[in-house]
Design goal:
Structural class: alpha+beta
CATH class of the largest domain: Alpha Beta
Largest sheet: 6 strands, mixed
Radius of gyration: 24 Å
Protein name: Transposase
Distance between the termini: 21 Å
CATH architecture of the largest domain: 2-Layer Sandwich
Organism: Streptomyces niphimycinicus
Shape: globular
Bound molecules: zinc ion
Number of strands: 17
Number of helices: 8
Strand content: 25-35%
């Protein structure tokens, strides 16, 4: 897995074992108590409890409230091979305000740091898939490392003007909508309608930093027009616009290397499910689905032990008979 052999898979359809997937989870501590002492309402009896001082209430992606410590895991697995998952990185991440937990990174920052670390030792990685917790600002530095980063698109983004092509015969206005370049059109009701432009190819160029381009076709009765647009963050994008005091264009938020909702996007989205399976197995490994340790650091140590066992099983079962004989 993660071999640097080229020619297998493409940037849009990388092989399963060239793609890292990741997710964060909240693991329950041994006790749900949040106060060290409680008084019985009827008798006034004081009871003492053990409390996990690092744990807190957080809301999961689906809106479910959970109590515990938050962990991040990144892994890879082979296609159609049971017990092939290898956990590559684990981290305990901040789930409170920075003031209450100044030592831990937030989820997005930790993801970027860990993926960059893995890329340094495994340059064969082609893509990384995660959930909506990762935004354009996190995707940009990973894309610059030369990989495809796939996450579902965050809702609520306004169409962003991208490009205008004018000639004597025709005008085309392009906008970034739902992660991809679209042509602006006006309906008979006078409403804006955005038609996604077909992407002919995702091009990648790598020197010190990688650049990714979409080769697009603008369909036109005057004859189709070809166009190339950058889908990684450019130097100009990062400049501060004096009128808004903000970065000129948060390109990696608005334009995606692989657009969500496409066949290639859904395939990569599906790869991420394996992380949830990994966390579920971790939870089930302990009585009452509770990590048998108090505090985020101790729980991380337990998780590292779990990953060690998991990876050892993958290693043992993944060995070819010839390896075992030697
Ligand atoms: Zn035209």
């Amino acid at each position: 897995m993660l071999k640097e052999t080229r020619g297998r898979g493409s940037w849009i359809y990388p092989e399963r074992d060239q793609v890292i997937h990741g997710d964060a989870t909240v693991a329950a501590p041994p006790s749900d108590h949040t106060h060290h002492e409680t008084a019985d309402e009827e008798t006034g009896e004081i009871r003492r409890h053990r409390v996990d001082d690092d744990a807190s209430h957080t809301t999961e992606g689906g809106g479910r409230k959970v109590y515990g410590n938050k962990f991040l895991s990144l892994a890879v697995r082979a296609a159609n091979t049971p017990h092939s998952r290898v956990i590559l990185a684990l981290e305990s991440i901040r789930h409170k305000s920075r003031a209450r937990d100044p030592e831990r990174d937030d989820e997005g920052t930790a993801v970027v740091r860990l993926v960059q670390h893995i890329l340094r030792t495994a340059p064969g990685i082609r893509a990384f898939t995660y959930d909506t917790a990762l935004r354009g600002v996190h995707r940009a530095p990973l894309i610059a490392e030369g990989i495809v980063v796939f996450t579902p698109q965050h809702g609520g983004l306004e169409p962003h003007p991208l490009h205008q092509r004018r000639s004597k015969k025709c005008t085309h206005k392009l906008y970034a909508v739902e992660g991809r370049a679209c042509e602006w059109r006006l309906t008979v009701d006078g409403k804006a309608y955005y038609t996604p432009l077909p992407v002919d190819e995702l091009e990648r160029r790598k020197e010190n930093f990688a650049r990714f381009y979409h080769r697009l076709t603008i369909p036109c009765p005057e004859g189709d027009h070809g166009l190339r647009i950058r889908v990684d963050e450019t130097k100009e994008d990062r400049e501060i616009d004096p009128s808004t005091k903000k970065q000129r264009f948060n390109r990696t938020e608005h334009l995606r290397q692989i657009a969500p909702g496409t066949v290639a996007g859904n395939r990569l989205k599906g790869f991420r499910q394996d992380s949830e399976s990994s966390h579920s197995r971790f939870d089930q490994s302990y009585p009452h689905k509770r990590v048998p340790a108090y505090g985020a650091n101790a729980a991380l140590l337990i998780y590292i032990g779990y990953a060690w066992v998991n990876n050892s099983i993958s290693r043992a079962l993944g060995r070819k008979p010839a390896d075992l004989a030697s």
